[in-house]
Amino acid sequence: MKILDRIRSWWPFGDVPEISAEELRDRSSRGDVQIVDVRSRREFRHSRIPGARSLPITRFTRDGVRSLDLDPNQPVIAICLTAHRSVPAVRMLREQGYDARQLASGMRAWWRHGFPCDKG
Questions:
Q1: Are the beta carbons of 11 and 95 closer than 8 angstroms?
Q2: What's the pTM value of the predicted model, to 2 decimals?
Q3: pLDDT tens digit string along 11-38?
Q4: Which among 17, 69, 79 is positioned nearest to 48, based on CA atoms?
Q5: Around Cβ 27, how many Cβ atoms within 10 Å?
Q6: Which end of the chain has fewer beta carbons closer than 10 Å to its terminal beta carbon, N or C?
């Protein structure tokens, strides 16, 4: 991959497939999605979607993704605060063959709906 293409893949703007907070709540309650939270560890500890796994975007590498032991046959949802850090995560996951999307409007949408969160 050319260096310019690599830089563009990290650009936190642009279109990537998305899922709404409502659909994510429904699908996560059925257990048919995997959630990867790309916010900082501190943000993750403060409030997260139940069942989410943490991999901060600053550590988002092939080895980091491999360490999550994701099921390649199940969709992966990347989340962050406002759906900006999750954009490059979705791109990288898709490059690795995962059916990846981001949570539209990020955790702010989840909180706005009052959906359940784990803390601590």
A1: no
A2: 0.90
A3: 555 689 999 999 999 999 999 999 999 9
A4: 79
A5: 15
A6: C
